[in-house]
From TrEMBL:
Protein name: Probable malate:quinone oxidoreductase
InterPro entries: FAD/NAD-bd_sf, MQO
This protein's record includes keyword Oxidoreductase: yes
Cofactor(s) needed: FAD
UniProt organism field: Kocuria marina subsp. indica
Family stated for the protein in its record: Belongs to the MQO family.
Gene Ontology BP annotations: tricarboxylic acid cycle
Gene: mqo
Xref: Gene3D superfamilies: D-Amino Acid Oxidase, subunit A, domain 2 (3.30.9.10), FAD/NAD(P)-binding domain (3.50.50.60)
GO molecular function: (S)-2-hydroxyglutarate dehydrogenase activity; L-malate dehydrogenase (quinone) activity
HAMAP family: MQO
Reaction catalysis annotation: (S)-malate + a quinone = a quinol + oxaloacetate
Keyword Oxidoreductase: yes
Amino acid sequence: MTSSQPTESVDVVLVGAGIMSATLATLLSDLQPDWSMTVLERLNAAGLESSNAWNNAGTGHSALCELNYAPQAADGTVSAKKALNINEQFQVTRQLWSSLVENGTLESPGTFINPVPHISMVFGEDHADYLRARYDAFKPHKLFERMEFTENRDQIAEWAPLTMHGRGAGRVAATFAPEGTDVDFGALTNQLLTHLTGRNVTVRYGQEVTTLKRQSDGSWNVSVEDRLNSDNNRVIHARFVFLGAGGGALSLLQKSGIREAKGFGGFPVSGLFLRNTDPTVTSQHNAKVYGQASVGAPPMSVPHLDTRYVHGERTLMFGPYGGFKPNFLKHGSLLDLPKSVRAHNLYPMTRAGLANLDLVKYLVGELTKTRSQRMDALREYYPTAEESQWELIEAGQRVQVMKSNRQKGGVLQFGTELVTSADGSIGALLGASPGASTAVPIMLNLLSRCFPAKMSEWEPRIKELIPSYGKKLDENPQLADEIMGHTAQVLGIK
C-alpha cells in the first residue's frame, strides 16, 4: 500500500509522457527554470500511446486538407473560420519547434518533421462542387494563399500519381498545398523529454497514479504505484498537477474531485490502418491525400492515403478503419468505459449517445468489414493497390469528449477540451485531433488559466520563442511572410 504521507515534494507533477506533457514541461522549464518537475508515465517509455508514430496519422494539422474543418452549410456556403483557427495554432507550434531547433533543444528537424504536400481529393459532382466552394472560401486568406485547385486529371496525377493509376471515368477534384508536413510526434516527444532529463525535470516510467488528494492549501498529494517494484510506491506532494495522460486523463480528472470535472464522459474510438513499406510503391507517392468522411463517421476517421516518415523510413499508410473497444488507452483496461460512468455524467452520456446513432451504425459497419472490403476502400484512392503489399496495423485509442449541454442534455464533442480548476492548481486535457499539432497553443492557454499572475513576467520570453504570440498571422501578411519563411527554413520545410 502507498503511504498517505508525502515521500517527496516538487512544484509540478505531469501525468503521462506524451507530446502534451513534454510540451508543457518544455515551456515551464524555460519560463520558470527554478521549478522542479516530475513526469510520471505508466508504460516503460515515452510517447507509446497517442504520440507514437504508428498510433496517429502524423499530419501536421493545419486544415490544408482536412475537409471536416470546413463543413458546407445548408445554403451551400463554406466558412474558413475554423480552419483558419487551426492553421494559426499550428503556426504557433511550428514557431516553438523552430526556436527549439535553433537553441539545440531539438535535433535535426528531419528527425521529427518532413515536407509532405497536403491534398484534398473528392469524387462525384456534389463533392467536387463542395471542394471548389471550399477553395474559393480559403484562397483569399494569407494562410491558404498557396493552395491550388484542379479537376485536370494530368495535374492530379503529377501531384499524387498512385491516386490516378487505373482510375475509371467520373469527376475528380483536388486541392494541393505544398507547405504540408508529416510529423513523428513520438520522436519529438522523446527528444523533448531527453533534453529536459537531468535539468529540473525527472521522468519516471512504470509509474501509475492511483489517487489525487487536494490539500487545504490547494496543493495536491499524488499517490503513485511502481508497476515494477511495489517497494517504490510513493506519494508526491505538488503545487500543480497536469493530467496529460491521453485517454487516461478522464479517470484521473474524476479522481481529483474538482467541480469542473462534473458532467464529462468519454467515448472511445479505436482504429486500424493499412501500411505499405515496399519502396517500389512508397517512392511513387509523396503526399497526404484526404477525402470525405462517411456519413456518421467521426472526423478522425476521414479516409486518407499518407506518406509517413518514421525512424527515417518512408512508408505509406491508408485508413483509418474505425472500431470500438471500451478501453481508453491502447494499453488500457476493457473496464475503462464502464468505470468512467458516474451519476453526474450518465445523463449527458446517454443523451449524446442517442444523438449520435449514425456514429454507432458507422462503427458497427467498420467492425464487420472484411480484408477485401478494406482493400476496396483503399482502391478508391489507389485503384491499382495490390493486397499482398499491405499489412494491417492497430492505431491508438481516441476518447471523444462527451459533456453536459443545457439545450441538448449532452453532446459528443470532436476535438480537445482543456479542463482546469478554479484555483488553477490542476489542469487536464481531454479529447483527440488536432491535439498534438496544436499542443503549444493549448499549453499556452493552460498557463494563462492556471498561472495568470505569472503571465506578464513570462510574456517577453514567450514572444522570443513564439514571435507571433498574441497576433493573428492571417491578419498580418508581412509578419506572416517573415515568420513562416523563417520557421520553414529552420525546420527544413517548404
